[in-house]
Design goal:
Layout: H1 22-31, H2 39-42, H3 46-60, H4 69-77, H5 82-104, H6 113-116, H7 120-139, H8 141-247, H9 253-446
Subcellular location: Chromosome, Centromere, Kinetochore; Nucleus
InterPro entries: Kinetochore_Nuf2_N, Nuf2_DHR10-like, Nuf2_N_sf
GO molecular function, one term: protein-containing complex binding
Length: 451
Amino acid sequence: MSQVRRAPVPQTNLPGFPMMTTGEIMDCLAALGINVAQEDITKPTWNSAQMIYSSLLDALMGVPPDALDQPKAALLGMMEYKELYADALQFTMLFRHCRALASLCGISNFNMSDLTRPDAQRLRTALSGIMNFAKFRDERSQFHLALVAKVAKQSDKAQQLRKKLEQIDINMGEITARHAADRPLTDKAKERNDSLRSELMGLRTEQVNLSHEVEDLKRERGALSEQATNKMHELATLTSQTTLARSRLVQSPERIKRNISEMTHQVTVEKATLSTYQQQARSHQNRLEVFGGLERDLKELIDLEKTIEQQKIKVEEARRSQSALQARLEGKNIEGQGLKSKLEQLDRQLQFASDKLHRQQELGRETRDRAKKRIDDVKAEYVKLKKVKSVWQREKDNLMSQIKELEDEMGAFISKNEREIDDLLQDYWTTRKQAEDYMNTMTVKLGLVIG
């Protein structure tokens, strides 16, 4: 017999979870409260497949069949021909939730044919992934409870942050009110600083002019003092000369009298000049005293200008501090808005986690009740099956003996057919050889040329 070449088996992508047998899948479904028959998995129909997936959505995701009615009614309310889309919309929503569950369980090739034309192997693969996910969820229940506790802790922290944010808002309001109250004083101080600055600039100019004038008067006073000293020296010289002349007696008294009168006149003139110089000196002294007072006033004004400059620096620092506080206030406002949004998000997450925890607790209680009931039913069924096991065993032995007889008959039949097939093949090859010889002979006799 000729050998048959086997076609290579195409490689398929293996799932990322262990495959379960039909019995294991049925046990897991029963633990979830989903009662199915073996034919529903080995020979699935669209009705049984949709029933199984709907029950799994209710048990694992908390999406009962009636939960789709409200969004379905809302969507149909926006459509014109509701009766045409009602069934299709119901199926589409069911498929969307089933695909989300399958994707969550690591099944990426879930499609509509799994609900409309289910295949036994694909159904077993999908149910194996979902059951592995259910077991993983039960094993990680402690971790889920830890997450719930963490969410509660975050909620308390969010409450504290909310109180802190309210206190920050109150402080910001006080700072804003204080800033608004200080603004008129700041504007008034700024106007006063501007007027004092202009006045100081005028006084500075006047100080410079007075300083130049004082220097000129000091130089003039020095010149007058030097001139008065010279005149006093000349007067002393003349007095000594007059005394010397009087001590001498000469023969010409007229000339002496004339000299005395000239000298007396000269002394009178010098005294008048000296009196004038002294009066000018007293006047210059008074002016110097006035200039000294002005100089002291200018020094005080300069000190005042320095004080004003320091106050101006302080005002600028206060303005910069105010700008920094304003920027910080805006930053706190932005941070407060972020914290508010985060608190709202945490509240939503907490509410979602609380609802999910409540559903999980309800599901756990229902699952335990169904499992307990199922165990009781299985025990009762086991007792019944144990009673009929002996009957089935006898029937099994009879069937095994019949099967052995049939196998013997089939072996004999196959051997007989193989011998007949070998004979037929021998006749076929003999006939084919004779036909080829005949064709070659006819070709030669007819003179046909084979290209």
